[in-house]
Amino acid sequence: QVQLVESGGGLVQAGGSLRLSCAASERTFSSRAMGWFRQAPGKEREFVAAIRRSAGSTYYADSVKGRSTVSRDNAKNTVYLQMNSLKPEDTAVYYCAAMVFRSGSYSSPSNYDYWGQGTQVTVSS
After folding, report:
1. Model pLDDT for residues 89-100, shown as the tens digit of each residue
2. pLDDT value of residue 31
3. Residue 7 forms beta bridges with which residues?
4. Among residues 89, 10, 92, which one has the least CA distance to residue 44?
């Protein structure tokens, strides 16, 4: 099975930055589209960003577009999410996910097949 491990979360003040990492243990990592999602307490999981293969077409939710950047390093089997100008509304557990068997909209959680355990991001006001 594909194992995904997120890291880089933590506590940051509003306006600060964080870089989240997602390390994958999977030999065909470079051929997978990867997504970032987040889930706040009592709320549904929502799309944050996604990146397609090594060529790097990227997609962003309107809520983070312009202040977030998703990238990948296939040599390291790692995908990153750089988040700047963080807001308290960004507070959530952030998950990375891999699209393997299914296809479709990058913003739909149901289209992803493997998920990491999440990393907590807390933004204080």
Report:
1. 999 999 999 998
2. 81
3. 21
4. 92
Predicted local confidence at residue 81, as pLDDT: 98
Evaluate whether 22 touches 5 at the Cβ level (below 8 Å): yes
Contact 71, 55 (CB under 8 A): no
**Helix (H/G/I), strand (E/B), else coil: 6:** strand
Give the CA distances from residue 113 to residues 2, 98, 116, in Å, rounded to whole numbers and listed in that order: 9, 6, 11
The DSSP letter of residue 103 is -
pLDDT of 50-88, one tens digit each?
999 866 799 999 999 999 999 999 889 999 999 999 999
- Tell me how many degrees the CA angle 106-107-108 measures, rounded to the nearest 5: 95
Strands (E), 8-112: 10-13, 18-25, 33-39, 46-52, 57-60, 68-73, 78-83, 92-99
Rounded CA-CA distance 98/113 in Å is: 6
Cα–Cα distance for residue pair 56/73, rounded to 1 Å = 10
Q: What are phi and psi of 34, to 5 degrees?
A: -125, 140
